[in-house]
Design goal:
Two copies of one chain form a homodimer. By secondary structure, the first copy, chain A, is of the alpha/beta class. In chain A, about 35% of the residues lie in helices and about 20% in strands. In chain A, β4, α3 and β5 form a beta-alpha-beta unit. The longest helix of chain A is centred in the last third of the chain and has 15 residues. The C terminus of chain A is likely disordered.
Chain lengths: ~350, ~350
C-alpha cells in the first residue's frame, strides 16, 4: 500500500462529544462523502449528530459498513481509554478501524492484539505510507487542478471538494485527491503530504495523481503556502509533483498577515498567483491560474459581494465563495473546461 | 537530542575496501576534519588508506577516540555481516558507533544488545532526530551564508567547507552547518535535512543555525536545487529556515541538464540567483548573492580559467573553483566581510 485506500462505507464514531468543534472530522465526512457513511455511534452522553441512524458495530456491518472511523478529536489528539471497549467491539464485528489521532491505533496493545486475532486492519491516517518514490517530473496524461493559498487554513480543501462536485455535476470525470487527514477520510484514499519525508514529497504528489484519461480532472487539495516561512517547502513539493494545468488561488477576505505569524504580511493576490505560476512552469509550462476562491465567512452578505467584485475587477478572473455562493463558484468549472481544449502535452523543457 | 552531536574523535573503519570510491566518507572526514580522527582500522585485504595510523579499537580508545565511524559503503548501503565482530569489539573497547548506512545499527540485534550491555550509543546519521519544531521565521542574530545550486551533486558541501576554512583562516568566527550525512560526520553535528518530515524542514534549518554573535558566520551546506522537480521543496524549506544573509551559487561548468533528469535543462546562473533571492527575501529582505563557486573538475586548466572568466564577466561577481584555485576562492570571504557591515537586523515584513 503506497497511498491509503480505505475500507468503506464507514460507521462514524462520535464518542461522547457534545461540541461540534471536536467532531469536525465526522461532520466533514458526512457532508462531503455521505455515500461512504452508513450510520453513527455514540457513547453515553454524546449529543453531536451527523443525522445518520445510530447503529451498533454489528448492525453497521450488516448494513454494509466495513470500517469504524474515529470522527472525534479530544484535546491533544489522544485516544481516550473509555473508547477502547467500543473499538474492540467494532473489530470483533468485522470492521477495520480508521483514525487520524496523534495516538496511533497500532501503538495501543489491546487494539493491535484484537486486530491480529480478528484479522482486521488498523489505519492511522497521520502515518504516511512506506516506499514512496522520489519525483521524476515526467509529464502525465489527464488534467490537474491544484488549489493554492495565500496562507494556511483558509479553504483549500473545501475549494477542491466544491470544484470536484461541480465538475461531476457538469458530467465531467473528476477525482478529489486528498493530501490531508480529513481529506483522505472523505476521499477514502490519499497521502498525508505534510507527514512525508521531504525528499519524497514531490514523488508522493506524482503518485497521488497518476496518468489518466485526457479529459479526466484530478482536483488536488493544496497544503500550506509558498509564502509561509514554515511550510513553503511542502507547498513547493506538492506544486511540482502535482504538475497542475490549472491553479485556483484560495484567500480569506480581509486576512492581511499569516495566521499565527503576525510578523509576515500576506502577499497580494497578484504576487501569490505570479510566484505559484513561476514555480509551477518548471514542470508544466502551460499552467494557468483561472480563478480565485474567496473565503468571506467573516463578512456580511453586502461586504462579501463587494470583496468578490473587487477581486474580479482587480484580476479579471472569476471569483466566488464556494460556501456562500456555490452556484457562482460552479462557474469556475466552465472556465476550466473552456481552457481545457488548449491544453496539450508538451515536452518538459522549461 | 534534537540535532546530532557526535562523540569524537573518531577511529575510521575502512573494512576491506580496495576502492577509494567506496571509502569516500572516511576520506572526506579525514580531509576536512583531521582533528576529529585518531586512526584507521581495516579488515584483512583492505588497501584504501587515509594515511592515519592503523589502530585496534582498544588502542584508539587509549589515544582518545570515543567513536568508531563506519567510513565505507558497500553497494546498496548495507552493513555486512563480516564487519560485526569488529563493531562489537569497538563497543566493548568503549567506543560508540557512527554510521550513515541504509542498514540501521539499532536494527542489528547483536549491536543493539552489545550497546545496551556496555552502555554505549549507536548513531544512525540517516535517521533524523525526533522532536523537531516547525519554523517560525523569527530573525536570528549573527550572519548566515547558504550554498545553493543549479542542480544536485555539484559541490555545495565542498564549497561550504572551503568557505568555512577560509573564514577561519581570516580569523573570523565561523561554523560549517551540516545538512547531509557526510557533512554531519565532518562537522560532528548537524541534521540530515532531506530525511526530515516535510512539515519540519524549515524548523530544522532554524535549529541548525541558532542565534549567535553579531560577527559570527554560519556557513550552511545547501541541498538539492529550487529547479529540481524532485527536491525543490527541500531546497526551499532549507532556504527559508536558514534565513541567509549571503548566498553563494554553486554550478558545474558545462552541465546543461539536470543530473539523471535529461528532460530538464539547468537554469542560467542569472535565473538561479534571481529565484533564490526572490524566495529568500521572504525571511530576509537584505539577502544578497555574492559569489559563484564553479566546479571545473572536468575541464583543462585553460578551459577552467575561461569558464571562470566568463562567469565573472557575465555576472560581475567573484567566481572561482574552490578545489582548483583555493586561494582565489578564499577571496570570496573578503567580499562577504566587506558586505557584512551593511547587514542589519530588519523587521521581517517582506
Amino acid at each position: 500500500m503506497i497511498s491509503f485506500e480505505l475500507p468503506q462505507p464507514y460507521l462514524l464514531f462520535l464518542a461522547d462529544s457534545t461540541e461540534p468543534g471536536f467532531a469536525k472530522t465526522a461532520l466533514g465526512v458526512k457532508d462531503w462523502a455521505p455515500e461512504r457513511c452508513v450510520g453513527e455511534l455514540h457513547l453515553p452522553g454524546g449529543t453531536v449528530t451527523t443525522g445518520l441512524p445510530e447503529l451498533t458495530p454489528a448492525q453497521a456491518y450488516e448494513r454494509g459498513a466495513r470500517a469504524l472511523l474515529v470522527g472525534v478529536a479530544a484535546v491533544g489528539g489522544a485516544l481516550l481509554p473509555q473508547w477502547l471497549s467500543t473499538l474492540v467491539e467494532a473489530l470483533e464485528a468485522g470492521l477495520d478501524l480508521i483514525s487520524g489521532l496523534h495516538t496511533r491505533l497500532a501503538d495501543v496493545p489491546l487494539l493491535a492484539q484484537t486486530a491480529a486475532r480478528t484479522g482486521r486492519r488498523l489505519f492511522d491516517i497521520r502515518v504516511p505510507p512506506k516506499g514512496l518514490p522520489t519525483g521524476t517530473g515526467r509529464r502525465r496524461t489527464g488534467k490537474r487542478l491544484l488549489t493554492v493559498g495565500t496562507d494556511c487554513a483558509l479553504g483549500k480543501k473545501y475549494t477542491a471538494l466544491a470544484l470536484t462536485r461541480a465538475f461531476r455535476a457538469r458530467g465531467v470525470s473528476a477525482d478529489f485527491r486528498a493530501t490531508g487527514q480529513t481529506g483522505i477520510m472523505i476521499a477514502g484514499a490519499g497521502i498525508p503530504i505534510d507527514a512525508v519525508v521531504s525528499d519524497f514529497v514531490a514523488g508522493a504528489a506524482e503518485l497521488l495523481s497518476p496518468d489518466n484519461e485526457a479529459d479526466h480532472w484530478d482536483v488536488i487539495e493544496g497544503q500550506g503556502s509558498l509564502f509561509h516561512p514554515a511550510y513553503a517547502g511542502v507547498s513547493l513539493g506538492l506544486l511540482h509533483g502535482s504538475q497542475p494545468d490549472v491553479l485556483v488561488l484560495c484567500h480569506e477576505a480581509g486576512r492581511t498577515v499569516l495566521l499565527g505569524q503576525p510578523g509576515f504580511r500576506l502577499p497580494s493576490l497578484v504576487e501569490a498567483i505570479e510566484l505559484n505560476l513561476l514555480l509551477a512552469r518548471r514542470v508544466n509550462p502551460q499552467v494557468r491560474c483561472l480563478a480565485v476562491s474567496l473565503n468571506t465567512s467573516h463578512l456580511s452578505e453586502a461586504a462579501a459581494y463587494a470583496a468578490i467584485r473587487d477581486v474580479q475587477e482587480q484580476l479579471g478572473l472569476p471569483c466566488a465563495d464556494p460556501l456562500r455562493h456555490p452556484v457562482q463558484f460552479a462557474e469556475v468549472v466552465e472556465t476550466c473546461l473552456a481552457y481545457a481544449p488548449d491544453l496539450q502535452l508538451a515536452p518538459v523543457l522549461s
